[in-house]
Amino acid sequence: MLIGILVTLLVLGLAFGGYWLWYLSSDSDESTPIDTSLDLADAPMGCGMFTETEIRQVIPGTFTTEGGSGLSGDKSYAKDAQCMYSNTDTFRDEGQPGAHISVTTRLHKADDPRKYRAQSGVDKAKDELRRQPGSAIGVPNATDDKFREIDGSSGGVAAAQLSILYRNVVVTLHYSHDGLDEGQFTQPLLQLAELAIRKIDPNAGQQQQPGDPAASSAPSLPVG
Fold first, then answer.
1. End-to-end CA distance of the chain, in Å?
2. Residue 157 C-beta-side C-alpha neighbours within 13 Å
3. Which among 149, 217, 209, 172 has a CA at the least distance from the CA of 45?
4. Residue 147 buriedness (CB in 10 A; 0-12 / 13-18 / 19+)
């Protein structure tokens, strides 16, 4: 009887081992299909997103432009960069309100299809935006967006943040401006966000025929 039990255990062990080897082999040879049809291969990054002329509409007076650091750069899983614009050094001398805006761009790349629970760049970008604070305000042509106003230390709204999702790209705009109050950050950030989407994909939201001047015109920003 003991011999029978041992034989049974041996057979079960061999069967389990064979199945495990088959599973590992099939997992390495076959990949789970990932829909990357909406993944963009590239997008404007950091200081390449906006021109200084475009930023001048939201930063009064003379300002500086500085690339951010500490981001991943161009890796296998994502490409990102940041740019910061500020009149901190000049606004007092020029009698202007202090203002600062940072632009962070992240393009998510699809996983290797052999990876467990592999995702497309679009899916990974959706996950990033889902983790952002705020609520949607309906940026035209964006896949999704999150907006929030930020209270200052002495009360009142001191800044606002708008993150937009377009395909596999997330752009986050963080804007402070001493001359603006509650409700006044929305419009300039909306217009920058629309412009960012047009920079990422000139055909975003186009219904007109190619060559129609109305189809290629970018939204104008308010003059500060």
1. 92
2. 16
3. 172
4. buried
